[in-house]
Design brief:
Length: about 170
């Protein structure tokens, strides 16, 4: 569609003559080149997130404490915002930790398809050249993002949910 309409650049990170452009136009050029890759990444993860949010919120809305809040006459909007969404946040925070490594893996594919210079084309060339050590780099980066994302998710869960905190006595 980008090739037919010409509204957005179909590939690459910048247009020809990017270095000679003024700073504002360079920024707009890179932003225009980012639209399609970012859209592909977002549309890839969005259905999973929407389904997960829907399932966790539906589960939280059926919980006894939400029924008790409704029985006390609390307005539905407040029940949703103050009771159901915070209870549904725990699984979403955990999913956030896992999605960081998945985002790197997906971005490698999007970089190859969109001709974006990055780890994706480099890793593809390394695989075709059988360069084991160069392939090991992105795999290690993905592993570190997975571990770091889970550590960050655990820290966010500790801050968001008072039930997880444990006081030493």
């Amino acid at each position: 569609m980008a090739v037919r309409t010409g509204w957005l650049p179909a590939g690459g990170m910048a247009a020809l003559g990017h270095e000679q452009m003024p700073a504002g136009e360079r920024f707009r050029d890179v932003a225009a080149h980012l639209v399609l890759p970012v859209t592909a990444l977002v549309l890839g993860i969005l259905p999973v997130l929407v389904r997960y949010v829907r399932a966790t919120v539906a589960d939280a809305l059926g919980a006894p404490f939400v029924r008790a809040a409704r029985a006390h006459g609390i307005p539905e909007v407040r029940v949703l915002l103050r009771h159901a969404l915070p209870a549904a946040a725990n699984p979403l925070i955990s999913l956030f930790g896992l999605s960081l490594a998945g985002l790197l893996s997906t971005s490698l594919l999007v970089e190859v398809v969109m001709s974006w210079p990055g780890l994706g084309p480099l890793m593809l060339e390394a695989i075709l050249a059988r360069d084991f050590y160069l392939v090991l780099g992105p795999v290690l980066a993905s592993t570190l993002l997975l571990v770091g994302g889970n550590l960050l998710a655990d820290a966010l869960l500790l801050a968001a949910d008072p039930r997880i905190r444990r006081e030493e006595r």
